[in-house]
Amino acid sequence: APSNIALVKYWGKHGQQLPQNPSISFTLSQCVTTTAVSFSPRQTGETAFDFLFEQKKQPAFHPKIQQFLERITPYFPALEGHRLSISSQNSFPHSSGIASSASAMAALALCIVDFEKQFHPLWTEEAALQKASFLARLGSGSAARSIAGPLMVWGQSKAFPQSNDHYAIAPAVEWHPIFHDYQDTVLIVDKGQKKVSSTLGHGLMQGHPFAAQRFEQAHSHLEEIKAALTTGDLERFIDLTEAEALTLHAMMMTSNPRFVLMQPNTLALLQKVWDFRAQTDLPLCFTLDAGANVHLLYPRQDRNPIMDFIQKELLVHCQQGQYIEDQVGNGAKKN
Ligand code: DP6
Question: Which one of 3, 5, 8, 10 would you pick to mutate in the ligand 1 pocket, going by the greatest count of ligand atoms within 8 A of its CB?
Answer without folding.
Answer: 10
